[in-house]
Amino acid sequence: MDADETIRQYAEAWGRGEPDAAFEFYADDVVMRLPGRGSLAGVHEGKPAVIAAIRALLARTDGIPVTVEVIDRLVSATSVAMQLREVATREDETLDLRRVNVYRVRDGKIVDIDIYEAHQYDVDEFFG
């Protein structure tokens, strides 16, 4: 499966509210880089660490579904960059954010995830 199809299926799993299905697209040696100054910012190495970080982020919201809109996609042979609008809620708080996630794919599995926030301070405050 090529990079574009891998990320399409990955995004569809998230869109169905099925994180466990999405996590199956991670390679065992996946690396995710989260920007910011919050407690979860930094480099997360290996499938268990990446999943734990994502679950910790979701725990700071009202849970799935987080609304995700794909604004645009840039695709190469090995990578997909997605410009996204995401809306997360927690009780009476709402975070409406824009970000770019860049995924590198090898053999149908995601091996690298780099996240770039449009308004990092808002994200840091919400997910602190």
TrEMBL record:
InterPro entries: NTF2-like_dom_sf (IPR032710), SnoaL-like (IPR037401). Residues 7-112 form the SnoaL-like domain. It comes from Nocardioides humilatus. It comes from the Bacteria. This is Nuclear transport factor 2 family protein.
